Amino acid sequence: MSVTEESKATEATPDDDILLNVEGVKVHFPIKRGVIFDKTIGYVYAVDGVDLQIRRGETYGLVGESGCGKSTLGRAILNLEPPTDGHVIFDGVDIASLKGEDLRRKRQDLQMVFQDPLSSLDPRQSVESILVEGMKAHGIAKDAKEARPRLRELLAAVGLPPQALSKYPHEFSGGQRQRIGIARALSVNPKLIVADEPVSALDVSVQAQVINLLGDLQEEFGLTYIIIAHDLAVVRHISDRIGVMYLGSLVEEAAAADLYTTPLHPYTKALLSAVPIPDPDIEDEREQILLTGDLPSPSNPPSGCRFHTRCPWRQETRCDDERPALRVVEIDGFPSGHRVACHFAEQIHRGEIEPHKVEPIAVDPSSFEVPEDHGTMMAEPPGVNTASGGDPARGL
Amino acid sequence: MTTTTTERRAAVRETAPLLSVRDLTVTFQRHGEEPFRAVDGVSFDVRPGETVGLVGESGCGKSVTSLAIMRLLPKRGNKVTGTVNFEGTDLLSLSDAKMRDRRGRDIAMVFQDPLSSLNPVVPLGVQVAEVLERHRGMSRKAAMPVAAELLKRVGIPDPVRRLRDYPHQLSGGMRQRALIAIAVACAPRLLIADEPTTALDVTIQAQILALLKELVEDTGTALIMITHDLGVVAGLCDEVNVLYGGRIVERGDRHPLFRDPRHPYTNGLLASIPRLDAAGERLTPIPGSVADNLPWDHACAFAPRCSQPIEICTQVTPQLEVADGRALRCHNPVTSGWSGPSAGQTEGDVAR
Hints:
Order of helices and strands of chain B: HEEEHEEHEHHHHHEHEHEEHHEEH
Structural class of chain B: alpha/beta
Helix content of chain A: 25-40%
Order of helices and strands of chain A: EEEHEEHEHHHEHEHEEHHHEEH
Structural class of chain A: alpha/beta
Strand order of the largest sheet of chain B: 6-7-8-3-9-10-12-11
Oligomer: heterodimer
Distance between the termini of chain A: 30 Å
Distance between the termini of chain B: 47 Å
């Protein structure tokens, strides 16, 4: 994917507009076993070759189900999890190759907002001390006194009262704690913020407050976001572009609106059709693509297309043994920014290939332990219930 | 299709309720602390074959309600008052032994976290057979084939082999299916599902919801669905109860409720969730958090977060008023249905 990433025809982007360039990143975790000597008996292929570009000032959403590697990819981008292979080029510097002091300095530009605001804030530090710590480390302020005016600004920006400075994390509600986490990320003037499930621990009424806040801050400080989430509605709401991950690799990438109106990859189609919509009229009409079984084990991924074991559109040729590359798909009048990793995306879209019932495949339970919460066997479904040739995303 | 559902719905409305909860109140009492009412005078009916939703955010009392109905709350430190009438018997006044006979046979429950609800050191088959042994008086030998049949019914592949598996050998979705198999083993007339899909991924959630729907349609089991996800409710429930601060604030059949939410809280919830089928307009959050609630005994608990409070809201407790199959607890209801994002204020961006 060395070709310049094109957005919609109207806004072609020069190369220097790309803030982050992820090239062939892989993160493999060794599985070790042994009493005295640890022997590596296999790998969990958490992230297995991802290419993506993120432009300055955009919000990139990364979605997928648990165990698909989206969080690991987010951590690999920040080098919190050193990639096994590949490059993460941020502003012209390959972060994956940085070490020690250089890496520490670079971290000023890349900050993270974590999922669980309580466990990511030190319970014994006051808000002031939490916020000042990063500023001191990066030489923005020498001590709390000097940082005071900036702290006030930060708190105002995230919508907390100035009195919050002397309080401790347990004194706040979940939504307020997440605001502190966001303020901490902002305190060092980062260019890129990776937010890993920033709202999934919050109640729905509070979720909206934080989502709006993220949007406002982006406008105010010109931030670039990578939002990692499993909630497709949230991701659609805040993202400019969205990448869908399945079993360690990107299967589809497109502008948010395009992805939702015309999903091309069978997995994306199924994922979108599974999201319940709070409107009974739509729910009554909607036809769902029920996927069969569970995610295969990332330590023993299927050959060829990773999705072929569950795909209702699987073909006899190619799908089983040839891994599809993420390629730009041109279907009459489609924006060229739409990338999809499916051999038959065009044919499926034109309705030339009909979905069929997925025959259950007896996969032997893998002998490896898998750190994810997923079992190691494939499951037989109660039958595939697909939209009969119609557009499964109808009503979306 | 819609006419048949309406007709079916009308027929269901006519039948006598299977479960009738009246004025259910659960008070947590701790030594040296103010008693806290987690559930405050909740009343609702469930008719045979009906799916009733209890919706609300964390802390609204929806799970405590279900635990009180099942008599699963610890005896110490809390007081349960009111009546839970199940086919003429008040469950709350039954002896413990009598209640044990009913639990799992007449009323069964599916919990949120399938891993912690299954015994990790007992094979799956034994856990399913146990219910049959206890309530049907079957021997282990006779119960095992039935257990396999049940696992097959809920869509677990290779059920005979799975009987010997332990819970950790199954995936999250499979565990939840196993839990449902245990719950429906004795063909209960009422099934209570407490956030059954919250721990699962969306594609697995869709499978489990389809399974529950199918079970309800095939067996005529009544279902109480407890969830925070309005999307799940929209597709599954016949009647929806919206809870706030331990009380029901609005009730209605799903179509009228979603089309025309009357309570500012229901309306606010619908306006604050991003929707998959709508473009990225600015959301209208509900300002503040549950910590701002007023006590129900002399005010409306929701008043400090309400988009349209009037003077009386902070002075008088609103009563639950029932009319045309809908119920509403509000002094100043939303009039013209969905107020849309523009009507609300964006004050919510400032945390209080």
